[in-house]
Amino acid sequence: MKKLELLFAAMFILSVSNLSAQSWNKLTIGFDSNFYDVTFLNASRGYVCSDNGAVFKTINRGDSWVSVRTEAKEGLACVHFLSENIGFVSSGFYNGYGAIYKTENAGNTWTKLNVPKNCTGGGMWFVNENVGLYTCADSLYGESRILRTSDGGNTWDNVATNIGWISYFSFADSLNGYATVNNGTVLKTSNGGLSWVSLDLGQNLWGSGVCFYTKDVGLVGGQNFSPSTGKATIFKTTNGGNSWTAITTSDMIFKIRYASESVVYALSVNQVGTGKMIKSTDGGSIWSDVTSPGDKIRGIHFVNSSLGYAVGDSGTILKFETTGNVSTLERPLVQLYPNPSNSAITILLESSIKTGKYIILNMEGREVLSGVIDSKITNINTQFLSEGLYIVEVYSNDFIIKEKMIIQR
């Protein structure tokens, strides 16, 4: 018992960054490709896809990027990763060149999957390594059909046909997903894409952006062709699409991403094709413009409410990080012990904190371990880590805590 008390007494006092000021900064990456989509598995590892068939990868929070070629004849529109090794990219929105490529080695090499020939593709989503969905039409903006694979892309079944042009998918979990259509409807599945039902928005929206935070709470956006003034371009549901709240913004909405339950970002485009970001802090009801050092933004992804990335034309990659006054707490919100550590560390949360996540980085900024915090005490096995200095980052919706950790044997 005395030893445990000494461990607590010897703990470092942590520095806590309150999430107040926010900023977007443009990264220098050395490439001038036009980027269409971005995804991050965690704070360190991310991927973007480009209009020249290349995938760009970072393992150090975007500080540096490497390019990996695929066999795509046209631009890549969507990128989706399931794990550190398994990921997919699709070429879309080009007549006759729909294709999906899969990697099993963290993006180092890519294999073309067996999708139908002469398919003009739209959105792509994989529920797991075997089950995936892809939209396919005979021509750009023609009548789409939803293709579903249950064997990793070797064979595909038509699960929905003649329903209008489908742009994107969003799945809240392995069973519940949605897709946007260009005829004022949204498609919904509750069985992993085996069957779909049509939900009526009540206005003639050409649907594009879609993102669901849970199976019931989500947003869709697009361009409204209704004859009335004050046309809504975003629709919000809190009951799985049974009813929708229409929200008016100034421009067409083509992508939406949640940073947290309340903070949402959307990408919009005006009449001259210039893309910009807008933001909501109340779950999508009220929106305001975001100032950023980039133009024609085409893709956006948030790791959490304090870290996000956006991509666009001419090699644009933007990084969002929260900043704020750093204060030293006499009684830290999070405690880390023992430190130095031999084979395991413990993260202890104060009772006011419910959940979060942790990331351990080596001194090169490369992630070596990560996980979810869902209880007051989290035990982490560090036996496989080499001796040396590491950074432990703990995230919640309200703060980021960073602490140095020593592995010593």
Largest sheet report: 6 strands, antiparallel
Q: How widely separated are the two ends?
A: 23 Å
- For the biggest β-sheet, the strand order reads 30-1-37-36-33-34
Count of individual beta strands: 37
Structural class call reads mainly beta
Helical proportion? under 10%
Strand content: over 45%
Mean pLDDT: 83
Poorly predicted parts: 1-21, 324-332
Please count the helical segments.
Answer: 1
What overall form do the CA principal axes indicate? globular
Cα gyration radius (Å): 22 Å
Short description:
The protein is mainly beta and 409 residues long.
What report would you give on this structure?
By secondary structure, the protein is an all-beta fold. It contains one helix and 37 strands. It has one helix at about 1-10, and strands spanning about 15-20, 20-25, 35-40, 45-50, 55-60, 65-70, 75-80, 85-90, 100-105, 110, 120-125, 130-135, 145-150, 155-160, 165-170, 175-180, 185-190, 195-200, 205-210, 220-225, 235, 245, 250-260, 265-270, 275-280, 290, 295-305, 305-310, 315-325, 325-330, 335, 345-350, 355-360, 365-375, 375-380, 390-395, 400-405. The strands form nine sheets. Strands 30-1-37-36-33-34 form a six-stranded antiparallel sheet, with no helix packed on it. Strand 15 (about 165-170) and strand 16 form a beta hairpin.
List the helices and strands and how they pair.
Elements: H1 2-9, E1 15-18, E2 21-26, E3 35-40, E4 46-50, E5 54-58, E6 66-69, E7 76-81, E8 87-91, E9 99-103, E10 111-112, E11 120-126, E12 132-137, E13 144-149, E14 157-160, E15 166-171, E16 177-181, E17 185-189, E18 197-200, E19 205-212, E20 218-224, E21 234-237, E22 245-247, E23 252-258, E24 264-269, E25 275-280, E26 288-289, E27 297-304, E28 307-312, E29 317-323, E30 326-328, E31 334-337, E32 344-349, E33 356-362, E34 367-373, E35 377-381, E36 388-395, E37 399-407
